[in-house]
Amino acid sequence: MNVADPTEELVSHKDPQHHITSPATYYLIFGVLLILTAVTVGVAFVDLGRMNTPVALAIAMSKATLVILYFMHVRHSTRLTWVILIASFMTVGILFVLTLADYLTRGLLTY
Amino acid sequence: MSDTQPHHPALKHHFEDLGQQHEASTLGMWAFLTTEIMFFGPLFFAYALYRSQYSEAFVEASHHQNWKLGVTNTAVLIFSSLTVAMSVYFAQKNRHKALVVALALTLVLGIAFLGIKAIEYHEHFEEGLFPGSHFTYKSPLAPRVQMFFVLYFVMTGLHAVHMIVGIGIFTWLLIRARRKEFSLEYYGPVEVSGLYWHFVDIVWIFLFPLLYLVGRH
Amino acid sequence: MTTAVIDVPEIPEVEKTNYLNQEFGVMSWLLTQDHKRIGILYLLSVTVMFLLGGFFAVLMRLELVTPAGDLFSSDTYNKLFTLHGLVMIFFFLIPSIPAVLGNFILPIMLGARDLAFPKLNLLSWYLYMIGTAFSLVVVLLGGVDTGWTFYTPFSTSFSNTHVVLMIIGAFVAGFSSILTGFNFIVTIHRMRAPGLTWFRLPLFVWAMYATSIIMLLGTPVIAITLSLVAIERLLHVGIFDPAIGGDPLLFQHLFWFYSHPAVYIMILPAMGVTSEVIAAFTRRRIFGYKFVAFSSLAIAFLGFLVWAHHMFVAGISVYSAMIFSLLSFLVAIPSAVKVFNWTATLYKGSISIQTPMLFALGFIGLFLIGGMTGLFLATMGLDIHVHDTYFIVAHFHYVMVGGSVMAYFAGIHYWWPKITGRMYPEWWARVSAVLIFTGFNLTFFPQFILGYLGMPRRYHAYSPEFQILNVMSSAGASILAIGYALPMIYFAWSLKFGKAAGNNPWGAAGLEWQTTSPPPTENFHTTPVVTWEAYEYRPEWGGSNV
After folding, report:
1. How far is B134 from chain A (nearest CA, A)?
2. ∠ at Cα B46 (B44, B49), nearest 5°?
3. A82 and B CB contact within 8 Å
4. What is the pLDDT of residues A61-100, one digit of tens each?
5. Confidence of residue C360 (pLDDT cuts 50, 70, 90)
6. FRET pair for C294, CA 20 to 30 Å: which of A63, C60, C339, C354?
7. Residue C284: DSSP 8-state
8. Is B61 on the interface with C (CB under 8 A)?
9. What is d(CA A5, CA A16) in angstroms, rounded to the nearest whole number?
10. Peptide bond connecting C153 to the previous residue in cis, omega within 30 degrees of 0
11. What is the distance between the alpha carbons of residues C140 and B68, in angstroms, rounded to a whole number?
């Protein structure tokens, strides 16, 4: 071994995620989630035609996003965590899109 | 690895330090949640497919769901996600007693969720809506209504299994928290268990509108 | 680059204590958390399952010597090909290189003391064993006849065999591979030795990383899909049941969503081994290192986009079939990139033909044929003609056996000195490599012709004009069997009588060759610090060992 401690320059041990989210943030998100739940129910009883389902899904996605960003600390997480999350959603997305590509295009071509 | 400092009792021998261990366990939990997303994903797809094909039957089926119990359960789970997030905070702040309370509250809420679910399942059974040989529901759309309930029981059943596992995990956390094992230096298990619990909550956030609120207008 | 000082950790002269003899007793093995011992546990169990799957193949090839279905009833034959497929795919091919070689070598290649989650590693082996137990019970109770593909509604409503038990076995084995996958990913991200940046990693690591991604993303899909089949069977309800409006094609979409990427789980590790062996036996850096590294990731990604090429004649829409056909062509590109780069590495390399190299070269040639015939099958027009014929059987055996199994043998021979501290007998090993190559081609090449001429797969009786080719195929299978049996004998022999290997019998680059053979339990006495590039060869490491 050469220098004093060659590991010093080459090692990068990051400190654990010491970011401490404040309780105030948690309570705020909690409140918003409850409100959005109420909205989901309320909107369900209003006739929006074909928009009912997209609206319900949009609200659900917003709630999920809040939980992911704040309760699951993704807002302050490493880039790798983001990559993993996005890769997972992309894969589910591939499942949905390419399979629906079959179902939605059946019967378009008649022999 | 410096041998001049005593090892934290929770440091595993193959890691250099607690920082590396924390990062590894967090990454591991995220990788595991990826598998869970792919585990529930196909069920949501099957649901989307059949709902688009049999929309009338799915509306009829969804009207048999007790939406009030469903929204209560949603609120219960969201509240439990709050207690879980607060338990991470308390662990980081070395507030052992508050941590124990937060974990215990999480457990209570989780069990409440399962209790409400059991009531719902019982109601469905009584109405003859349980798929298979006990399905006695009569309607011109009965076969497709049964399809809805197959998906309902599989999806919420799988979710409930995950809740039970979560309750087991948090019970173990509670025992460890009472022994004051967690601190700012070492709170990884609380954090990663929390990630799991939040994931299960998110699944329910999607299940609720899709199963309970179809065509309610 | 060539003047960099290598920080090689000091290795004591005489290494008597290693992971094999540090502790004795059955429990020290059954409760071990040492990734090396777990790799050995997998080696033993995977070999048993290989023999079981091979046994079913032998029975099938015996039946197919004559055109009439005279050795077994058609029901029994259905069980034979089902069990052959299930055992070979779920219990041999998928775990083979990752769980045996990956478990053993990966942490050492990274300069780590173990994988990130040693207990989960042990759990993965136990889950694998539970899976094999279920499948053995199924075999003893009379087998399954649905085909390894479990197509509905036969598997859900009409088969009278032990479908649910088999599903449980496959399900549990699937979780075993999930655990292995995320153990590898976390280890590669967080436990590399100081100085070991991503582009200094051996290409085997890149291959295992890509494989692990597929394991994580794909396996849960088949887990839930097979669970639904089991639920449908047990409770007589289901989502694939046409009587209540279910869609059998939904099953096929979900099934192949995993099962196609699964074949990349089987081939990517093989490609990783090939990169290591080619580098070692040409004493060169792999040409186009970054291209090879990224091609592994590209295969993992593109592999998820092509699954419905298994369903061209199943009733999917023509438009989606065209999309999947196009995407299937694309996935061939990164594979071809690898083959070109290996070839370029060989050109003007300092080549020595030892057994691992023989297997690796065999891999390249046979994978080439298998891969090219895959392109034929991606072509919708041709696939409609040869779907469900022996052409398909030949294609996938070329990539899975001529490909993956060859590379598995290459890896076992290459790392055997490291794992056991002993050399295998080189002459016998070369004989078995030649027998395997010859037997393999004699077995499977005629099947391309058979399939093109129209012989269907999964039939135990066939039209008499196909007999000559079938006899050739069965004859080849007997040679192949001898070729596979020989290593079992000489590897066992080498444990007691093999020459001592020394730390680096091949003179190869890579951290695993910088520690003793066999390694100590903690892999390295001091954590290595890496200041050199991947595959940087040094003359002082010596040469080949024959």
Report:
1. 30
2. 110
3. no
4. 999 999 999 999 999 999 999 999 999 999 999 999 999 9
5. very high
6. C354
7. S
8. no
9. 23
10. yes
11. 51
Task: Tell whether C111 is within 8 A of chain B (Cβ).
Answer: no
The region that residue C507 occupies, defined by phi over 0 for left and psi between -120 and 50 for alpha, beta otherwise, is left
C494, C423 Cβ separation under 8 angstroms:
yes
Q: What is the dihedral of CA C381, C387, C392, C396, to 10 degrees?
A: 90
Does the distance separating the beta carbons of C237 and B38 come in below 8 Å?
no
Predicted confidence band at C215 (pLDDT cuts at 50, 70, 90)? Answer: very high
Cβ atoms within 10 Å of B104's Cβ, excluding its own: 17
Give A91's Cβ-side CA count (13 Å radius): 33
Query: Who among B34, B35, B46 is closest to C239 (CB)?
Result: B46
Count how many Cα atoms sit within 13 Å of the Cα of residue C171 in the half-sphere of its side chain.
15
User: In 3D, which of B35, B41, B38, B36 has the Cα closest to residue B207?
Assistant: B41
Q: How many CB pairs lie under 8 A apart between chains A and C? A: 56
Within 10 Å of residue C343's Cβ, how many Cβ atoms? 13
Q: What is the DSSP letter of C422?
A: B
Of B31, B41, B45, nearest to C182 by CB-CB distance is: B31
What residues of chain C lie within 8 A of the CB of A103, using their CB? 317
DSSP codes joined into one string, C349-414: ------HHHHHHHHHHHHHHHHHHHHHHHHSHHHHHHHTTBHHHHHHHHIIIIIIIIHHHHHHHHH
Burial category of A83 from C-beta neighbours within 10 Å (exposed 0-12, middle 13-18, buried 19 and up) = exposed
- Chains in touch with C (3+ beta-carbon pairs under 8 Å) read A, B
User: pTM of the prediction?
Assistant: 0.93
Dig out the tokens for B41 from the structure. 């994903």
Residues of B in contact with A80 (CB under 8 A): 27
**Is C270 an interface residue toward B (CB < 8 Å)?**
no
| Residues of chain C with C-beta less than 8 angstroms from the C-beta of B156 | none
* Pick from C114, C189, C221: CB nearest B42: C221
Give C327 to chain A, closest Cα distance, Å. Answer: 11
pLDDT at A10: 40
Residues in chain A, total: 111
Measured CA to CA, the distance from residue B84 to residue B98 in angstroms comes to: 12
Interchain pair C223, B39: CB under 8 A = yes
- Tell me which residue in A10, A91, A101 faces C529 most closely, judged by beta carbons: A10
The count of other CB atoms within 10 Å of the CB of residue A47 is 9
Alpha-helix runs per DSSP H in B93-187: 96-126, 142-178
ipTM confidence score: 0.93
Shortest CA distance from C300: residue in chain A = A91
Q: Of A80, A95, A85, B16, give the one whose Cα is nearest residue C255.
A: A95
pLDDT at C545: 41
